[in-house]
């Protein structure tokens, strides 16, 4: 009689998994380059475009809006028409945006390119969905998905460092056009990698996908709702919390979710399966992604400006140079990679759910340490190392947990929603943090007016509380939900 390990080893789905993960690692390397490459040269980009440094903040706003809007429909399309097809389309759009950045003649064109480049946010969820479907029937689907996700996120974080170091080293050695063309080349090569390296598995649409059956009404409603909320948050950043227009936009967006939920509940094949999101295995994961997004996406600029603040002038800060800020980010990213790579081990020792809980608590502890310990560079490095360990594990674990708690025809949607909710959480936190740090009416940076220390304490407190709340939410998730997918959303 053949033993279980022998059967698993001979399973072609398992034997071919390493090759597919290898090709997807190439995609995540490109994703990491995109996420790390531009940060050290934002000032140079501003000079190249002839804009003020403060205008660079529009890049973040544009990508957050695009990310929040495109992830749900693209993730759902992945389930319907095949995840590889949508991965190819999103990679092509990202490549187009990257080439627009390299060739942009001015700020407006560059902003459009930057927004298009935001399509890369759906890559990791689609990759996790590809792996999850590939390992179906192996008996180790959840385990293999977590391991593969850990490898992908680890590669992503290492590539962030590579991207940052590369752009910093080349910025004085070549023209801006050539410098900006390098990420475009990397993303273009990803098209070839995905085309030839990833198998094309048909989607789960039962009788073939037809555009007429696509949930256009749901897409329109969710686009309107998210667009209004994100527009309101942008107005908050521009005009402050007293803006009546900002809150009217936010309230209008929230109100639009009511008819949207009713519409989706009535559809047999909704673009956003709200019934699935209400299940015990999904809502804790999605709410955790929202809470996690507040720190992983919203707190990076405040950390950078705090480190650059001169303590002699403000009475607080690290007085750090730009090179130390790069070091601080590098330490954070390295420990994110460590957290991602060790996820399979911690999941085996603690259980998948408990590993998620501990990761969220690490993020909370790390930001909590900032409250008493923010006077020296050594303290900052320790704090960010702790935050990085938990963050890296969460980035890898959340899409895998969402996939494990979803039926086969909803894996792309479930994993994609973790990125969508994370983006919305980051956008909300970014606006709140901007208000907390406003002092003289300027959010441009330390040279334009010092933010109060109480503002930074508020930022760290919010991040710490959000992470602890995420840990408590995850305790409500059934442990079995992270180990095997559900079979129905009814």
Explain what this protein looks like in three dimensions.
- The chain has 490 residues and is mainly alpha-helical.
- The protein is 74% helix and 0% strand.
- It has helices at 4-10, 12-15, 17-37, 42-49, 57-81, 83-103, 107-117, 123-134, 141-170, 176-197, 216-239, 244-266, 274-277, 283-296, 300-308, 311-314, 322-341, 343-350, 352-370, 377-404, 411-437, 453-474.
- Helix 3 packs antiparallel against helix 8 (123-134).
- The longest helix is centred in the N-terminal third of the chain and has 30 residues, at 141-170.
- Mean pLDDT is 81; it is low at 1-10, 439-448 and 485-490.
Task: Please summarize what this structure is.
With 490 residues, the protein is an all-alpha fold. It has 22 helices and no strands.
Question: Notable features of this structure?
Answer:
490 residues, mainly alpha, globular
Order of helices and strands, N to C? HHHHHHHHHHHHHHHHHHHHHH
The fraction of residues in strands falls at under 5%
- Main beta sheet: strand number and arrangement? none
Arithmetic mean of pLDDT: 81
Q: What radius of gyration results from the CA coordinates?
A: 22 Å
So what's the oligomer here? Answer: single chain
The N- to C-terminal Cα distance equals 39 Å
Q: Unreliable stretches, pLDDT < 50, 5 or more residues?
A: 1-10, 439-448, 485-490
User: Shape from CA axes?
Assistant: globular
The total count of helices amounts to 22
Number of strands: 0
Percentage of residues assigned to helices: over 70%
- The structural class is mainly alpha
